[in-house]
Amino acid sequence: MQEQENLSLEENQIRQTIERCAKQWSSEERNISYLLKGEFLIVADKFYLHFGNRLSSNARKFIIASIELRDKKTTIVKTKRHGQLIGGIIGAIAVVTVFALFIASFNSMVEAEVNSSNERYENVSKISV
User: I need a labelling partner for 20 at 20 to 30 A (CA). Which of 60, 73, 82, 93 fits?
Assistant: First the structure.
């Protein structure tokens, strides 16, 4: 009880909320759907950093599990974004390659047409002479 007296009213309310949530998490076989998320996870993380010794072992494990899940989700999102970026770059390279092949093919066709025209011109010139 003395440890609770050293906490402000707000800090004690935060501690009680964390303990209550941790107890529910444990009673639900540590189901991840009961872990902290969002703003309250940020509050709980700060509380843990400053007053972790005033929390039960279960509450500390609860906060750590919540942080680990958040970090895992963040890693998955970053990996997905990197994959999308790489996919976009590969797509852009493919488009540029197809365009370059089209230009090269077009240039070959034009060159062949010019050569054909030159040959016809030379043949007509030989006949005229």
Answer: 73
pTM above 0.85, yes or no: no
Domain ranges (residues) in the chain: 2-128
Both structure tokens of 53:
């010794």
Cα–Cα distance, 74 to 105 (Å, whole number):
46
Q: What is the pLDDT of residue 80?
A: 77
pLDDT at 2 over 50: no
Contacts of 109 (CB under 8 A, 6+ apart): none
What are the angstrom distances between the C-alpha of 19 and each of 56, 88, 122?
7, 46, 96
